[in-house]
Amino acid sequence: MGDQLLKHMKKLLLVIALGFIGISATQAQTKYLGGFGIRGGANLFNFGGSDVEENDYTNRVGFHAGIYTMMFATDRFAIEPGIYYSVKGTQNNDAVDSRAIFNYVDVPVLFRLYPSEGFNIFAGPQISFLASSKYEGDFFGSTISFEGDNAKETDLGLVFGVGYNLPKGFNVQGSYDYGMTPIFKNSDADVFNRGFKISLGYTF
């Protein structure tokens, strides 16, 4: 467990370092830095893909929280890298209410377009690093849980959505994560992380 955590930390530090290099390079071409911010909210995730259509999976509620920075190339276009802790997974409507819980560190790079003041649409790539995974079920009033080791350590996907900037630095947005990497390793199963996020942010 310690070696796995160390591996994830090394990957995260590498991504952060590359992110700062990218930010420094991009700043030379940006009009101004829009500021740093914090953002968090609710997740509504499920398994997606052709191999889950016949199963009785349903959306599972989780959360996400993290930080971001905004860099404006023009008054209408901004680039927004961020780092978030995000709880994903799914739930099954079976006799024991079984569920899969996957905890990731998400690193998205969003491209925001502002058609009008405040309102924006956005999309961009995201790489996610698996922090931990477990499976749970309820038996006679007690929750039974065990650690999982069959999920891939990285997940690639796309993020897209809409947002609105509120007064005094606050913002709200709704987005969809479209996982493109099959979740499970050593498996041909067509199963992906897919889900909605509703977020509240604050830009300093």
- Using the CA coordinates, give the radius of gyration: 18 Å
User: Main beta sheet, described?
Assistant: 8 strands, antiparallel, barrel
Task: Using the coordinates shown, work out and report the CATH topology.
Answer: Porin
Give the structural class.
Answer: mainly beta
CATH class: Mainly Beta
Principal-axis shape? elongated
Compressed to H and E, one letter per element, the order equals HEEEEEEEEEE
> Tally of extended strands?
10
Number of DSSP helical runs: 1
Mean pLDDT: 84
Show unreliable segments.
Answer: 24-28
**In the CATH classification, which architecture applies?**
Beta Barrel
Structure description:
The protein is mainly beta and 204 residues long. The protein has a single domain (2-203), classed as Porin, CATH 2.40.160.20. 13% of the residues lie in helices and 61% in strands. The protein contains one helix and ten strands. The chain has one helix at residues 2-27; strands at residues 32-48, 57-58, 60-72, 77-92, 99-113, 119-139, 142-147, 154-165, 170-179, 192-203. An eight-stranded antiparallel barrel has the order 1-3-4-5-6-8-9-10. Keywords: Signal. InterPro entries: Beta-barrel_OMP. Pfam families: OMP_b-brl. Residues 16-204 form the Outer membrane protein beta-barrel domain. This is Outer membrane protein beta-barrel domain-containing protein.
